[in-house]
């Protein structure tokens, strides 16, 4: 009996040791699982667990289940969660105002310019700045260009006057809405649907996939395909946690992230196209394609925002993006 009890205790100890060898990675985000970010997080989980041969277990927490917009960054910095994929607008609040480059209206004429900025020295230099905040930037994920929605048609700058428009916490986005005569309202992403339903706000700005997965077509009568701004994410990890991983495991996770990023960029455009068709099929929201001439009027109305933040974001970053846009336009 004593031998049996001793053997049981040893087996229990070995089991605990084996369990403790598995490294748990909590990955929290605030969007639905069927968005580009949600699907890419699933892909990273699959790849990370497979490539590490089970040495890591990735737990996903979508839809703000674990932490809301305003809470998640502090949770990452204290290692209560290991990986986040916050929108790029979130980093201004950390004192890294340079990231607000991505919030500037009409700064990226197309995704070729966007990816060249992200993957080149501008984007990679911005990720390196996260180290000072106890964060390592792993990748940029894409969610596409934003469009305006409201319960009245939005076709000219005058149509925005007096509208309470939801924004993320960003001084650039605040200035953008004010340039249109709208009233910016900072509201957590998970609360936007109810705020629209209860008429706390009148409108918002989102890529198509967010518009559909958050069911905003149920509470917004008009969607204008303005393509005026961009929503992207930085996949980030707690620096102490990341640097404490074995070198070989860190390399495996880096590869898993690279593959998940390629997958995410591939599906982002597809998801937005599919979401738009589903919104159109619901027949609850009138979709208006903003003609190029009207888009140019809107762009010129918001262009002073670029000058307003030239010194805050950095002339090198803004002018550098202009140069890249010119090179892409010239076919370089």
From TrEMBL:
Q: Which residues form the signal peptide?
A: 1-19
The biological process GO terms on file are:
C4-dicarboxylate transport; transmembrane transport
User: Might you report a single GO cellular component term?
Assistant: outer membrane-bounded periplasmic space
Q: Name one Pfam family in it.
A: DctP
Task: Keyword check for Cell wall biogenesis/degradation, yes or no.
Answer: no
What InterPro entries is this protein classified in?
DctP_fam (IPR018389), TRAP_DctP (IPR004682), TRAP_DctP_sf (IPR038404)
Is Signal set as a keyword in this record?
Answer: yes
Keywords from UniProt, A to Z, are:
Coiled coil, Signal, Transport
Coiled-coil ranges from the UniProt annotation: 253-280
- Belongs to which family? Belongs to the bacterial solute-binding protein 7 family.
Record-linked NCBIfam families: dctP (TIGR00787), TRAP_S1 (NF037995)
Its recorded name reads: TRAP transporter substrate-binding protein
Q: Which organism is it from?
A: Chitinimonas arctica
